[in-house]
Amino acid sequence: MRRAGILLHVSSLPSSDLGPSAYAFVDFLQQAGQSLWQVLPINACRKGYLFYEPISFFAGNYLFISPILLMQEGLLKDHEVKTIKDKKVLLDLAFSRFKPGCDFESFYEENRGWLEDYATYMSRREKTIKERFYFEQFVFYKQWKTLKEYANSKGVLIVGDLPMYPAMESVEVYTKRHLFKLDVVSGVPPDSFSPTGQLWGTPVYNWEKLAKEGFKYHVERIKHQLKLFDVVRLDHFRGYCAYWEVPRGEKTAVKGRWVEVPTKEFLETLLKVIPRERLWVEDLGYLDEKVHYYREHYQLTGMAVLEFAFDEKDSPYLPHNLKENCVYYTGTHDNPPLKGWFKALEPTGRQRLIKYLGKKVSQESVAWECIRLVYMSVCRYAIVQMQDLLNLGIKARMNTPGKPKGNWRWKLKDLPSQELAQRLKDFTIVYGRYP
Prior knowledge:
14 strands; 4-stranded antiparallel β-sheet; alpha/beta; 39% helix
């Protein structure tokens, strides 16, 4: 089935949480004929909005908890929600009024394995009682489950995003230290994004130890994500085939090396318990034949980005060079919106785009022309950044790889209009992506 969807993180909603604006966005998706909502990681983070540095692959990010929904349950007062902006303070107040019931007991019993580890770690880190973190996660999961059920009832599937590595300061490293190599850190070598590579600084896995345990750790974290999402995107699939490790203490990723991974054994173990239809793999960046082989051999759904299609002659990312089992993006969270991309595009790339479209385009018209290319492609899935639908420029960029500050801040001021919903629905019908 051909599908279309929108990439918009929870943090980019007007309220930046799981409250009323999240439900209103689901309504917009339905009205626009969209059947996919892709988000970025919703895990608890090391700091603020560092979505790809989770402190737990199981705990949810407390920043996404909606105070309005807590108020509707009688755990917060209207004046508190309006005047107190610190979400931790609001959660403390709600916790002080919370009386556990059967639903809480069921949640605790079902999740106690990871929940105990998380609550122990966080209570020591923040010097407060463990029960406070049981409550936090109960509330997060309750709000998330209700939102997901609402989206599914409207015909919308939610696509999640699973980071490759946890933060160095994380529950995983705290409780499963033997599964990591802590004298080196993660990253990727120099590429078009960064001449010195990207030094992520997270621990890398000890795949020898993982293999001895039957890859239980990876299987469990992916299974858990599929309780939260209809589909999970495995970030940095390159790292499941070979990973770039850099000696700890280096200032850049240049002095790293590739280390092989037991990919065949891992994927065969994983696919015995996880349907491949529920996995997408992020196979962008520097790839070797091993990555292509395993993605194709195991029929995993890969990714392509239109913004990469005009950097070279007959690029593999051009619509006519793509395959059906693929997700085609205008751009991802790591790319500029189309309007800003077009402005910075080299003259030769701009000419390739114009020839491919068969018409001249401007900064104002390029976004929807490119959306049309993505929609008309043979790819089963088409995903458009919300910034592109709104025809926004470079200031709306979500993340710039290699840039240490100023990322992840963009969000909607208001939800999209009915006119935009209708325009997108028309595209969805014309190109056979209507649910």
